[in-house]
Amino acid sequence: MADGKHPGASGPDLAAGVNDRDVLQSSEKRVAHPSGKEGYGRLAQVLRGLAFAVYFTSCCLAIVVTQFIGAPLYFINREWFYAYMAMTKRSFALTTTAMTQIWGPTTVRISGDESVAGQIKSTGDGGVQFSFPERLVLIANHQIYTDWLYLWWIGYVNQPAMHGHLYIILKESLRYIPFIGTGMMFYGFIFMSRKMATDQPRLAYRLNKLKQKKTSPNGKTYLDPMWLLLFPEGTNLSGNGRRKSRQWAEKNGLKDPEHVMLPRSTGSFFCLNELRGTVDYVYDCTVAYEGIPRGKYGEEIFGLSSTYFQGRPPKSINLYWRRFRMSEIPLDDQKKFDLWLREQWYKKDELMEEYLKTSRFPPMAGAEAGFVETSVRTRHPWEILQVFTVVGLCGLIWNNVRRLFHAASKGLGF
């Protein structure tokens, strides 16, 4: 997210990454794609692209129509409205999960330190189950445009399921993407410009909604489930981003990490302070993609075309988790928080270096192989039909009403 600590774009760029390079260019030689040769010929790629477009557009259109059908609930009962929109948010998570399962299947290897021991377990069917709390702030390094997709899937496999309660801070321009932008506005995602002074009132307003206490019928107070996803680097890793990070480090006399960019702390500091007292933990995820050579960038290799059309998704996505108590994070002093966050990113850089050398993150206690290995997939093939349930039901009701009206008109001689 943008917060003014050093220049750069903000938020995950959902619209970019379509025209990825088929091969990496170096000054000395051409380096083959790390996922091998294209899995499909040109005709097959075109057909896959068309099928992908039909699938994704149909799902997004059904979700947006579903949202508009439920929009009047906002004026009837706000609790019903937010629950209904959470249902549509789950539909989008199902859409992207099934999309990845069909067009871009990949292995996911998950590990973590002792702070998350017992919270990540393999299931008997080769899946994974997380048991993260219902309210947390999630921070992560930003490798490629679709990091958010895999992190959203984590909410899907969490118990309780949290893919209907994820909130992301993103760039203002993304709200204007057809269908998707409208859907994200209904989801309650937070759109930001690049000026914290301008964005702070809007951010405070949205975060205040996420920390409001509710009262149950039996008189007990509670807070709605919420996972707030932040990318403190502000944008995905790229040559331009690395250059700005290096310049910022030189200007301020800081060590510049090799595999990540220096995080910007003002926005994160503001969010955590706003949510203090309503969230107990910050969960940190370090993300690495198999096959990205040292000094290269994932956006150059794993774009949408490579991942979903050419049959060359990442061979594996590797996630390393850590957990921090909010009470132990220095939230009373901006400078101390800035130092704390930067130290966490230096540790990420060390983790990324270890991954590059060994192709693995440190092993997780309790995991037989040191990690849990699974794949991005839905629990059941027919789950995707949930996306079309409300639209289909409304269509069925409308058809029956139309037929009854037509029959009544004929009976009355109209």
Automatic annotation (TrEMBL):
The chain crosses the membrane at residues 52-76, 148-170, 176-193. CDD domains: LPLAT_LCLAT1-like. It comes from the Eukaryota. Belongs to the 1-acyl-sn-glycerol-3-phosphate acyltransferase family. It comes from Purpureocillium takamizusanense. GO terms for biological process: phosphatidylinositol acyl-chain remodeling. InterPro entries: Acyltransf_C, Plipid/glycerol_acylTrfase. Residues 136-269 form the Phospholipid/glycerol acyltransferase domain. One of its GO terms (molecular function) is acyltransferase activity. One of its GO terms (cellular component) is endoplasmic reticulum. Keywords: Acyltransferase, Membrane, Transferase, Transmembrane, Transmembrane helix. The keyword Acyltransferase applies. This is Phospholipid/glycerol acyltransferase domain-containing protein. The keyword Transferase applies.
